[in-house]
Amino acid sequence: MMQVHESNPSSALENVEIPGPENEIDLPIAIRKGTRNCTKKPLYPLSNYVSYDKLLANHKSFIVNLNSVVIPNNITEALAKKDWGDVMQVEMTTLEKNNTWEIVDKPKEKNIVDCK
Questions:
Q1: Are 51 and 57 in contact (CB under 8 A)?
Q2: Which residue in 29, 72, 99, 103 could disulfide with 78, CB within 3.0 to 4.6 Å?
Q3: Beta bridge partners of 4
Q4: How far apart (Å, rounded) are the C-alpha atoms in residues 10 and 13?
Q5: Distance of alpha carbon 74 from alpha carbon 91, whole angstroms
Q6: Which pLDDT value is given to residue 29?
Q7: C-alpha torsion 36→42→43→45, nearest 10
């Protein structure tokens, strides 16, 4: 640590300590252990305040279908569903058709970046 002294005695900051790099402490870095899962029930569930009784039949049908689409969490789940596999294939075909990218071999001296 270095000490800086002001030449003006009337200054309120007469002795100011400035941390130097020689005093830095090597602290361990905490590694994330996982994600939290919310297990508490809501205090005020929406079902206490919203009812489907007053909706028209076509509106009820629309709302019920909103929850019927299950979004996969990973590529394995996506490929297990035919619809998702078809959509991914169409997307890849479109990307190739539009020359969005070019597939090349990995350079020998480089590592592939992981998503996690």
A1: no
A2: 72
A3: 16
A4: 9
A5: 17
A6: 67
A7: 170
DSSP 8-state assignment for residue 26: -
Q: Is 84 exposed, middle or buried (0-12, 13-18, 19+ CB in 10 A)?
A: middle
Of 37 and 17, the structure prediction assigns the larger pLDDT to 37
Tracing tokens 């200054």 back to the chain, one arrives at: 11
Tell me the pTM: 0.35
Which position has the token pair 């998503």?
Answer: 115
How many Cβ atoms sit within 10 Å of the Cβ of residue 60? Answer: 13
Q: What is the mean pLDDT of the chain?
A: 76
What's phi and psi for 42, nearest 5 deg? -65, 145
Instruction: Determine the Cα–Cα distance for residues 58 and 64; give it in Å rounded to an integer.
Output: 10
pLDDT tens-digit series, residues 50-97: 788 888 999 888 888 887 777 888 888 888 988 888 988 999 899 989
